[in-house]
TrEMBL record:
It holds the Pfam family LptE. GO terms for biological process: Gram-negative-bacterium-type cell outer membrane assembly; lipopolysaccharide transport. It is a lipid-anchor. This is LPS-assembly lipoprotein LptE. It comes from Pseudoxanthomonas composti. The keyword Ribosomal protein does not apply.
Length: 184
């Protein structure tokens, strides 16, 4: 009984604060097969984006297919910048930056999601003393940033597609001969 009451209070609290689960990526039904390509041959980001699209129900295109919708990862860049040093001048704290450029094209070559840049950064501490043989904080952050970058790219695709769907709905709802109101 106390367990059920705790779950009920938690559910009420989360719904009251505005928390809600993200919806699944909603791809157009006429999209057809989708291919993810990257300028980096063994890109972990491309693999993660491909898995995200598969989870959203996208039909996977063959590797050699040409006339398919393509999410192209045009660039991936990593950078470390020291942000704090110790009394000996050794860098102790860093800012890890990750940027990716992508574009999503339909099978006919038209742009579905225009070219966009996504940038993420995290700060971390790196001890110069006795760091051999351990999984460093940087390596953990690299993995996290790749997952976050994949999710960010998919959210941007979803945002553009949801905007297009809302625009189609607004145009369809406008009376004949009258343009929909512009919300600028």
């Amino acid at each position: 009984m106390p367990r059920l009451l705790g779950v009920l209070i938690l559910a009420t609290g989360l719904s009251g604060c505005g928390f809600h689960l993200r919806n699944k990526l909603d791809l157009p039904s006429d999209l057809g097969p989708v291919k993810v390509s990257s300028t980096t041959k063994y890109s972990k980001l491309a693999l993660l984006v491909e898995r995200g699209l598969d989870a959203a129900g996208a039909q996977k295109a063959d590797e050699d297919a040409t006339e398919v919708a393509t999410l192209q990862i045009l660039s991936e860049r990593w950078g470390d910048m020291p942000i704090a040093v110790d009394e000996f001048g050794r860098a102790q704290e860093f800012s890890l930056r990750y940027a990716a450029v992508f574009v999503f094209r339909r099978a006919d070559g038209s742009v579905m999601v225009p070219q966009q840049v996504v940038e993420l950064s995290r700060d971390y501490v790196s001890q110069a003393i006795d760091s051999t043989g351990t999984n460093t904080e940087r390596e953990t952050l690299v993995t996290e940033l790749q997952r976050e970058m994949s999710a960010s790219i998919l959210r941007r695709v979803d945002g553009v597609l949801a905007g297009e769907a809302a625009g189609r709905t607004t145009r369809a709802a406008a009376p004949a001969g009258q343009a929909p109101a512009n919300r600028n």
